[in-house]
Predict the structure.
Amino acid sequence: MPADAETIAEQVFAALADPTRRAILATLAAGGPPTATDLAAHLPITRQAIAKHLALLAEAGLVAAEPGKRRRVRYGLRSAPMQVAQQFLAVMARDWEAPLAALRDHLDRSATHDTKTEMERTR
Amino acid sequence: MAFPDRIERTVELPHPPGKVWPALTTAEGPSSWFGHKAEIDLRPGGAGRVTWDSGYRVEMRVERVEEPTVFGFTWQIQELPEDDPRRTYVEFTLEPLGAGTRLTVVETGFAQMPEDVHGKACDSHTQGWATELGELAGHLDAG
């Protein structure tokens, strides 16, 4: 697995850009580790196409093959790369403008209140 | 393109640092503009908490208190799941600007890696579950 956050985020976003891969990840997230055949039954694409997408998802570290019963490989989600991508989104989603504007309003209101109190006191 | 680690914003406020400081560091302050209710133990290592009427809350740990110029704390990354151990560091700096204040907020630490990204902790976690489920199965079989 690549070690730096930038590379991981890039692979995650590339993986998520494709609707079929999003569908595969959503299926894995919803119902535990299925086999490629299980996935093919759920999704309107061939088993070969699913295998190709699973390979890319495994390369990105998002899924891992687990040996199952009767030598059938199951695919499970790996959340670590997704957490790196989440951090990237966290920076974009972080909003300091609104709290700072609210702070300014709060200080303005307090100052107006102080001035009024002061005027009442000196009246 | 580098992975973004740091956010910085500056505002100029027409209020002196002596007025801005309590708005940042007292329980009454943040509850009036940031959340709905705030508690804070204003000393390095002290705990703080801001809660919203919706039930949402954020826990913080006070790191720097240099009245009335620097207030720093670490807190949970709000966009990540609540059990995520990672924290960002937020530092407010207050500089007198005429009769007002130049307030700078810097938040850093977004680019830190989750501990299990290298697979080790992740595998041990998976292993742990497999072991526990195995033990449960054994327990049920025995019973």
About this structure: The first strand of chain A starts at residue 63 and ends at 67. Chain A touches chain B at residues 1, 3-6, 8-9, 61, 76, 78-81, 83-84, 86-94, 96-97, 99-100, 102-108, 110-111 (CB under 8 Å).
